[in-house]
Write a structure and sequence with these properties.
Elements (H helix, E strand, L loop, with lengths): L4 E2 L11 E2 L12 E7 L11 E5 L11 E4 L5 E9 L2 E2 L2 E2 L3 E11 L5 E6 H5 L2 E9 L5 E8 L7 E8 L5 E5 L7 E2 L5 E2 L5 E8 L1 E5 L2 E5 L6 E7 L6 E6 L5 E8 L2 E7 L5 H4 L1 E8 L5 E8 L4 E9 L2 E8 L11 E7 L5 E9 L1 E3 L8 E8 L7 E10 L2 E13 L5 E4 L4 E5 L5 E6 L4 E3 L17 H12 L1 H16 L4 H6 L3
Parallel strand pairs: 3-36, 33-37
Antiparallel strand pairs: 1-2, 2-10, 3-35, 4-36, 5-6, 6-9, 7-8, 9-10, 11-12, 12-13, 13-14, 15-17, 16-17, 17-20, 18-19, 20-21, 22-23, 23-24, 24-25, 26-27, 27-28, 28-29, 30-31, 31-32, 32-33, 34-35
Helix pairs in contact: 3-4
């Protein structure tokens, strides 16, 4: 097993990845979150067929496994982990408490470099998304423990150079608002469109600030960031305080799908669509898409010479539960509807370039109110035809962890299992997906803040009434037999 060495680069030690001058082909033995990598062009034959690994622990955090297949065929992989183990022929940095691994693996199975983001960035909990920038750099949307808000989280944007060094970091060093995600999109020029979501205070990107002092009312802002330096080019809030469901970049503009913040049946049946100039942030146009029933926005992406909107409705069953079938609504650049295609139940888009086939992934729950998922389907739209591939796992997985990317020849897909198991597969035929062997995970350490300190911090941010409600919810769950370790994982 090859040991990792520090790269001889001109940077501070804490900014350096652990690089791998040589490593044997990919070992196949470490446990657990499923990622499916299907048919990627020329480099596909050289890629390992399977990569096993395990996450930090069961619970929601194990859903934070992210994968990316780069334009040159590398596999980028991020997931929470704990302890000491190895994969891709290299040793991961020791993480007695919790680490967040980031690896870049070459098509031949050799790990180019690996780093622990929690150690290197300071307070990282997980990676929400990984995107590729021009030239091979990576863009991470990272969730951190807030330095000023206790265990509440705030988002940070991090550029990772092709050799694994940290390029820039963009975040508010002293936020008074929590931010959930930047949901970055990369423009044709290599700049970064941010769709920020924050609540309960102010959040500053460099020297621009928007102040929202009312708790519990989600506020959304848009910003364009220089992809090389991290400098903010412009920033604005959404018109009329509309909330952002998703955004997509198409050439010199971008579109935003939104719901009306006002309540009422008429507003629940409409999707508001906005077009902005990507270089200036100036509003170019606006349209409203009506449905016959109340519906939910499941995604927006660039597709062909326009956009594709994924919208689901509540198809109520005899037992009272909704199935949420969704249509892909094909839009031209003016946001006019051209066609609709049914793309599964509870689906979401796989990301990808506008000229790639439109793909969704849909999980089939064991019951409508259950988190147990063993079957998922990938729907592909090519021309006017929708085809479906069905997969079934040998253990329950989290439906929210089904995230991937569509390419001209296939797709990548990550999936997190309830029991911490995980693996990466390439080109599986529809059918059974077998997970790898189990591995023991060390018990988590005691929290750095006491329960009383967490309650006090929560009350200072959201108010005394919200803190009392939170305490009541925690005690109710405790009385129902939920163990304290799981309560801490749930944020209580």
């Amino acid at each position: 097993m090859a040991r990792l060495n520090r790269a001889p680069l001109a940077a501070s030690a804490e900014d350096m990845p652990r690089t791998v001058p040589f490593a044997p082909p990919l070992a196949l033995a470490f446990a657990m979150v499923v990622a499916v990598v299907v048919a990627v062009p020329a480099f596909a034959a050289a890629q390992p067929a399977r990569v096993d690994f395990h996450t930090d622990r069961s619970g929601a955090v194990s859903g934070y496994t992210r994968t990316l297949t780069t334009t040159d065929g590398d596999l980028v992989l991020s997931f929470p982990y704990r302890g000491t183990y190895a994969m891709a022929g290299v040793d991961l940095p020791d993480a007695p408490a919790q680490g967040v691994a980031l690896l870049r693996i070459a098509p031949d199975g050799r790990a180019r470099w690996v780093r622990d983001l929690r150690r290197d960035l300071g307070r990282t909990q997980n990676v929400s998304s990984i995107r590729e920038l021009p030239g091979g750099a990576l863009l991470l949307d990272v969730q951190n423990d807030s330095p000023t808000l206790g265990h509440l989280t705030h988002a940070e944007l991090v550029r990772i150079e092709p050799d694994g060094r940290i390029g820039f970091r963009l975040a508010d060093p002293n936020p008074t608002a929590t931010s959930s995600s930047f949901a970055p999109r990369v423009t044709a020029e290599g700049d970064i469109l941010l769709v920020g979501h924050f609540r309960g205070g102010s959040y500053t990107l460099r020297d621009t600030q928007e102040d929202f002092s009312t708790p519990y009312v989600p506020s959304h802002f848009l910003a364009l960031v220089d992809g090389r330096s991290g400098a903010v080019r412009w920033q604005r809030t959404m018109p009329d305080r509309f909330t952002v469901a998703d955004a997509a970049v198409a050439g010199d503009e971008f579109a935003v799908a939104s719901k009306d913040p006002r309540n009422g049946t008429e507003h629940d049946r409409a999707v508001e669509l906005f077009r902005f100039d990507v270089r200036t942030g100036v509003l170019r146009g606006r349209a409203r898409y009506h449905r016959a029933h109340r519906h939910w926005i499941h995604g927006l992406r660039a597709y062909g010479d326009g956009y594709a909107l994924l919208a689901a409705i509540c198809d109520r069953q005899a037992d009272g539960f909704c199935r949420f079938p969704a249509d892909a609504v094909i839009l031209d650049r003016t946001l006019a509807v051209r066609a609709t295609h049914r793309m599964g139940v509870r689906p979401h888009f796989l990301d990808g370039p506008a000229d790639a086939p439109l793909r969704t992934v849909a999980a089939e729950r064991e019951a409508d109110d259950s988190l147990a998922v063993r079957t998922f389907r990938v729907h592909t739209l090519q021309g006017d035809q929708v085809t479906t591939a069905t997969y079934r796992t040998d253990a329950p997985v989290y439906p929210g962890s089904l995230i991937g990317r569509s390419t001209g020849a296939g797709f990548t897909l990550s999936m997190a299992a309830h029991d911490q198991r995980g693996l990466v597969l390439r080109s599986p035929a529809p059918g059974r997906v077998a997970l790898g062997p189990a591995r023991a995970i060390p018990e988590p350490p005691e929290p750095t803040m006491t329960e009383a300190e967490l309650d006090h911090t929560y009350g200072a941010v959201f108010g005394a009434e919200a803190a009392r409600t939170r305490i009541q919810q925690r005690e109710r769950l405790r009385n129902e037999g939920v163990p304290d370790a799981l309560l801490r994982q749930m944020g209580f």
